[in-house]
Amino acid sequence: MMKLKYVIPSILLCSTPFIVPYAVAEQIEAKVELTKVTLFLKGAELQGRTSIHVPKGETEILLTNLANNIDVNSINVGLDDKAMILSTSLVDNYLGEKVQSDTLKSLHAALKQLEDEETKLNIKLIAVNEEIALLKGNRIDAITASNGSLTDAKQAISFVKDNLVNALTEQYLLQTQTDDLKQRIVQYQSQIDLESGSARQTQKAIKVKIYTEHDNTLPVVLSYLTEDAGWQPTYDVRVKDINSPLLLTYKANVYQHSGLNWDNIDFILSTANPSQGITAPEPTPWNIYVNEGKSFYGSMSKSTADLATMPQPVMYELKSNTFSDYVVMNHNGLNMQFNVKLPYSIAGQSRDNVLTLKEQEVAATYRYTATPKLDDNAFLQAQITDWDKLSLLPGKSTVFYAGHYIGEGYITTQGLKDNLNISLGRDNAIVVMRNQDINETSKPSFFGNDVSQKFAYTIHIRNTKDVPIDITIYDQLPVILNKTITLEEAKYQGADYKKDTGLLTWQLNIKAKEVKQLPFSFKVSYPKDKAENIIGL
Fold it and tell me: Domain containing 503: what range?
């Protein structure tokens, strides 16, 4: 056994020359401080900074405090020219300390308060239990033996009874309160466990291998894209009256659930959408053929990118002391940007953060419209001619008229060739009715092999206001899709008629308290043997 003890070390010593030593790159962990966010319609570019001291040679840097969902292709690391980047990679399962959220802090504070209350109740409960024990210890034989007076004994028994009842009642109340507190403590602890999970959790990190010829302190700039954020344009439309310009407020509804709080950062809103792609489409062959059971098709490909140049911004005067005073709008040739010149904060899991970007007075003309065939109400509309100068994006609108909330609408300029019409709601002071003229309307009548039927209507408009109004009335004549059916004797005095759609349009100016009537009629003829197959009448 003694020889064996020395043989083993000898073998180990003899084997050591065959082990080839190698240098392991030193790893340095650095927490990135978020400094700037460029928020797109979908997605956000996050930019942060840190500083590290690295030794000479190869070093592995682990950049932490990042968003949850990172587009690996968008990672961009900038270093001082004293160092060279060898490689960059994304680490999905870095085990980092979890930052306690505001919600978790509030839960812990509430739990501490409940635990303090429970401690105070327990102290009171101990005192009451001692009092009950003392009162129960006063036996009758001990009371009577003390002085031998039956009267005194009765008084003593009554004293013990009354105080014991009070003590037992207090004990019951304290015990009930204690049990209730324990239940609430358990509930809060469950919420804390749900919110916090484990004390440590896996996070995203970026591993950067660098090489430097000397010891250096290096500034590091990191940027990357996350899809867990974005914004939607919204608008407030405010109209004082039909003689005043329209006040249009541009807003942004911001959301982000990247898991990283945006605290006091420089903030830019961009109308770009990187997720749409940047490659221009190319047409593929357009094939025309007779289908003989084969399943190939050719078509024009659609664009996957839609970053059309938006119009130049219009100069406008902002109201003072508003958030929009700190928003600067600029155009970089491809998209619009709103630079927020205030430090801004958004929680890592939040939505419906509404920013006011700018306010602008817009010249508008006002008119009423009505389509009594579908709705008897007259609707007020604001018509904007120079909408192409407003840099509008499609978005929801909230409408206010004369200081009152009217409802919600939607603003879009897609496919628009004429005026931009913004609906401002119904006006009950204008009465519109559409009635069928029974005397003019006929039942189907037969002439040889044909059937004819006349239809007649009258639209009544009453302006009960004290001011004149402009109103556009819409109705329609049927559009004939079969040559065996004919439209005859159409009468629509004063209306513009579009044959391809059948639309009738009356442009009217109605004085205060005035009533106008718009009669129109038409006749439809069709073969008698097709009567049961006529659709639309």
Answer: 430-533
